Amino acid sequence: MELSPKKILLHTGLFLLTFVTTTLAGAEWVYSKSIFMEGYSWADFVSGMPYSVPFLLILTVHEFGHYFTAVHYKVRTTLPYYIPLPPFSLMFGTLGALIRLKSRVPTKQQTFDIGIAGPLAGFVVAFIILWYGFATLPPPDYVFQFHPDYAKYGADYASYVYLPEHMPEGTVDVIIGKNLLFLFFEKFVADPSRVPNAHELIHYPYLFAGFLALVFTSINLLPIGQLDGGHVLYGLLGYKGHKIVASVVFILFVFYAGLGFVQFLGPQADELWVTGLYLLFLFSALTGVSSSALDALMYAMIVFAAQFILQWLIPGIHGYSGWMLFAFLIGRFLRVHHPPSEIEAPLSTGRKILGWIALLVFILCFAPAPIELIAPTPPAP
What we know:
Blueprint: H1 5-31, H2 42-46, H3 49-72, E1 81-84, E2 94-98, H4 108-135, E3 173-176, H5 180-188, H6 205-220, H7 228-258, H8 272-286, H9 293-313, H10 324-334, H11 349-365, E4 371-374
Antiparallel strand pairs: 1-2, 3-4
Helix pairs in contact: 1-3, 3-4, 3-6, 4-6, 4-7, 4-11, 6-11, 7-8, 7-9, 7-11, 8-9, 8-10
């Protein structure tokens, strides 16, 4: 597949720019060294590489898994487009990377192979990086270099420092969620005395980069539409089976994402206009399930009613509103159903096994609440 110098320059430029933004992000997340601070140095920039290099390595292997498989089948495709993010506070430096297929994939088997190659290849690299990260954890007092004030509490610092009265005004507490793979590494690979607290994981660049890469992998492996997981599900179940399962999974995803976003009851109940905007979100996202506006409205009202009842039965229950943006983008732009291929021959037994392994990888990588940002409010005197 021929590539013009202009296109190679574009993709290389995007990669280099993304390397810069992720390195800047790594220095800020791990060491709180922002490029906007006075005295920012080359050494500060380099300190972000233990985050940016493994993160981009996993994303690159993922995308080139797709790319080389598409080239193998003579499907016209682009090189990966890396998506840099400005080095602002609380940014990860990138929104990931993607390739664009420029010709139709004729068979279900080829669609399956192209879809599954990326996440499985990236997962293998992420697994190796995380194994290394957990096997070489620094001693517990490592975290004191970032928070010298924690040292006065010793090994039991976590019992004190995260209480609102101990946190400086204006700070943001970053809590990293857990997935099943992290629980495995903590139990069977890491020294239990060195496992980082969820509030401090951002200071462990290999773990933080690996975790974010797993979040990207889990999003890609959602068994919906033309995401990688959607291609896998389509290969396993065919057009009709995919349509049913993907619709159910997407509705549950929207339900969980929005659960608790609007408070319906009690003194903290939101105003009516907030509820109206939320209903508009539900309708907009769920148009991805059906081209009929009436059907989408029906699904939206069912989800809304179910959330209302659950909040009434279990006050305080909530999902993870961070997934709402992805639910909207999938529903409005990527869509939920997978278009049929020209040739829908059944997959081989080996491919079916790989397909179920890929869905297992999704379960291992998925964190219900990946990142929570909390600005503590000190108690009133």
